[in-house]
């Protein structure tokens, strides 16, 4: 056994590599050969050079055309549900009932809406609870849901090719999306705001002039930022988790998206806060194949029920109370 003291109790002189390391620690300022001693990295100060951007990040080019906002078409108009007690099973609903489960596309990285519990491994959140209520009405059992993890960029295609029966993924109903899929009635209304560090001087969108803001590409949030703050630099990343990382590392000055999504980031990192007025309203809808009118009507029947019997408010209070008191379920808007 190696000992640090001799038989008389006097300290032995360290030998070999241990001696070199101690010399380096004692006189690093006077030596140039001790290259293993490094100064810790400085805390980011906002010049965007301390850390590389997250994988897949890019600086978005300035907008060259005006992208339509949510209110520029009737994207929230959906199909009226059948009257209570009159729900004839059409072809898609019959297919789901014969299968014995409804297949729902979700995103496991959307904290408070649909994320995986690290202990149980279960997918949970506001969107997940809405899916369980749809299963309750379609199949008589809220547990008869098969959740399939879908990348947000693939959700439209997943519905179009029937990989899933529907997606419930905190999706803002826009004109472009409504031309590709059928939407349910609005099931949640978010407002686009800003997430910034606690010590930040940013309080409103105007404070972002000449600064960087993080967004996911080709989203209503990104286009709203470009419309309202023309000289802002938009950093796009694959998903919103990457935006939080970029903000934590000082690579961007703010994240801008729906307040409900920002709340999930703020809960994960209490050093962040939500600020500013609502920049744009974001109505969420459930995406369904355009050929499945019977399923759209059935889902809208569920949304009416949970708004009427208090289930919607209970789900809100379970996950989103950090946004304030429940506003109640959105009032549906129908096209027929």
Offer a quick outline of the entry:
It contains 10 helices and 14 strands.
How are the SSEs ordered, and which strands pair?
Layout: H1 16-27, E1 58-59, H2 91-99, E2 102-106, E3 109-110, E4 114-116, E5 123-124, H3 126-139, E6 145-149, H4 155-160, E7 166-172, H5 175-178, E8 182-183, E9 188-197, E10 212-215, H6 220-228, E11 233-236, H7 240-248, E12 254-258, H8 259-268, E13 272-275, E14 281-288, H9 293-308, H10 311-319
Parallel strand pairs: 2-6, 2-7, 10-11, 10-12
Antiparallel strand pairs: 1-11, 3-4, 4-5, 7-14, 8-14, 9-12, 9-13, 9-14
Helix pairs in contact: 3-9
Mean pLDDT: 85
Number of helices: 10
* C-alpha termini separation: 87 Å
Low confidence ranges:
1-45
Order of helices and strands: HEHEEEEHEHEHEEEHEHEHEEHH
**Biggest sheet: strands, sense, closure?**
11 strands, mixed
Cα radius of gyration in angstroms: 26 Å
What is the H level of CATH, i.e. the homologous superfamily of the largest domain? Answer: Periplasmic binding protein-like II
Total number of beta strands:
14
Keywords:
single chain, 336 residues, alpha/beta, D-Maltodextrin-Binding Protein, domain 2, three-stranded antiparallel β-sheet, elongated, disordered N terminus, Solute-binding_3/MltF_N, transport, Bact_solute-bind_prot3, signal
